[in-house]
Write a structure and sequence with these properties.
Blueprint lengths: L8 E4 L2 E4 L3 E2 L15 H13 L4 E3 L8 H10 L7 E6 L1 E3 L5 E3 L3 H15 L4 E7 L13 H12 L3 E7 L3 H8 L4 E5 L10 H10 L2 E2 L14 H10 L3 H12 L12 H8 L8 H7 L1 H5 L4
Parallel strand pairs: 3-4, 4-5, 5-8, 8-9, 9-10, 10-11
Antiparallel strand pairs: 1-2, 6-7
Bound molecules: NADP nicotinamide-adenine-dinucleotide phosphate (NAP).
NADP nicotinamide-adenine-dinucleotide phosphate binds next to α9.
Amino acid sequence: MSTINRTGTFTLGDRTVKRLGYGAMQLAGPGVFGPPKDTDAAVAVLREAVASGVNHIDTSDFYGPHITNQLIRKALHPYRDDLVIVTKIGARRDSDGSWLEAFSPEELTQGVHDNLRNLGLDVLDVVNLRSMLGVHGPAEGSLEAPLSVLAELQRKGLVRHIGLSNVTPAQIEAGRRIAEIVCVQNHYNLAHRTDDALIDDLAIKGIAYVPFFPLGGFSPLQSSILSDVAQRLGATAMQVALAWLLRRAPNILLIPGTSSVAHLRENLAVAELDLPEDAVAALEGIEAHADTA
Ligand SMILES: NC(=O)c1ccc[n+]([C@@H]2O[C@H](COP(=O)([O-])OP(=O)(O)OC[C@H]3O[C@@H](n4cnc5c(N)ncnc54)[C@H](OP(=O)(O)O)[C@@H]3O)[C@@H](O)[C@H]2O)c1
């Protein structure tokens, strides 16, 4: 039985979520495109997550596309009252799986309706506007037009809360003048710490910071410092990476992704891992050795 309650909770919009959640992107096929090899295995991961107490799942209708949301619906609908599904709009896939911007009012509105239909919901709890001004990392530029469209969809009652993804501090500040921003989802992990100052600033403002690629994403974290600490603590490198994030700031919500029940169990067991001070100090050395580009 998982003990994920040990990691505490955070208020996301008007809902309380556990700090240890699950990211569903890895459930689609290779390259987050098309169906998984084994649909039953994907369904089993989702059911295991919720049975273990996870009440925060991150997704998007452009994963697959449509596939990941359809898997969530198949596995978990009707949803538990405490489950918060966070999705994102702003991108689309073409026929070969490329990730393209979808910022027109029609595309954004369609994105919300696609999420509603494929998840089987009447209203979406939280929708992140995913900036595609830069595909691989935040790039400055105005998000006023797409965010205003999302705010209008919120006023119509299709969306409860709004977040931003792949954004700069300036875009968050500008965004907060258009809509209440309840979460920011950016690339961050032990080796990629561009957002250090931003995380602390958002913590003061009560805004959740949800790191994507917490384990390194498509290139899982590899570091001798990380392996040494993990060995010393009798944990795995991935568990140490997650434990460090949980300790890094109280507004960090974890959504590690996996397509495997065994990895899911391993990741959720991080709730029982307390990092001693000397381990934290050693882990601080990782970024200095990492390619943080
Ligand atoms: N907003 C954005 O632009 C954006 C971008 C990317 C992702 N996301 C969200 O963030 C979530 C997390 O990111 P992510 O899934 O891409 O990356 P991640 O959580 O950093 O890492 C996932 C990778 O690590 C592997 N893994 C997971 N647990 C493991 C374990 N215990 N031991 C060894 N390997 C393990 C997975 O493989 P297995 O399947 O084999 O376990 C997968 O290859 C996604 O699910 C998605 O919801 C958002």
